[in-house]
Amino acid sequence: xxxxxxxxxxxxxxxxxxxxxxxxxxxxxxxxxxxxxxxxxxxxxxxxxxxxxxxxxxxxxxxxxxxxxxxxxxxxxxxxxxxxxxxxxxxxxxxxxxxxxxxxxxxxxxxxxxxxxxxxxxxxxxxxxxxxxxxxxxxxxxxxxxxxxxxxxxxxxxxxxxxxxxxxxxxxxx
Length: 174
Hints:
Layout: H1 3-15, E1 25-26, E2 36-38, E3 44-46, E4 54-60, H2 65-80, E5 86-93, H3 97-107, E6 113-116, H4 120-124, E7 132-136, E8 142-147, H5 155-173
C-alpha cells in the first residue's frame, strides 16, 4: 500500500460522498492510457485484449472503505451483463497478490483482479482518488469517468452502459 495514495484518499474522502450514476462524467482527458497488468495468478491482461467490449476499469484497494462497499454492486452488474460484450477489470492499487486474491475470494468476485503494485498504471490513468472508475467503449476509448463509490447495479448505471454499447454497435454497423 502506497502512503501517497492512502493520504490522498483520506483527504479527498472527507469532501466526497458516494458518487451517483449522474457523477459519470463524459471523458475529456485525452487518449486512453495503456493498461497491461497481471492478475494474482500471473496471467497478463491488456485493455487491448478486450477491444469490441465495453470495459469498466476500476482502481481500488482493500484498505479503501468505499472501494470495498462498491465491489458487491460491481459483481451484481457483471452477473446482469453476462453474455453481453461487457467486462470489468478491477485494478488493485499498491497491494500484493495474496491480499487482493483473498479479498476477491471472500466476496466471490467473478471479474479479473489486476495488480498495480508500483502504481504506474494508476498514475497514467490519473486515478488520484480511490475508487476511480472509467467506462471504456468497444473502440478502446474512455467515454466516462467517476471518482468515488458508485452503485454499479443501479438502473441508471445499467442504462448508461447499455446506451454506450448500443451507440457503439450502431457506429460499427455503418
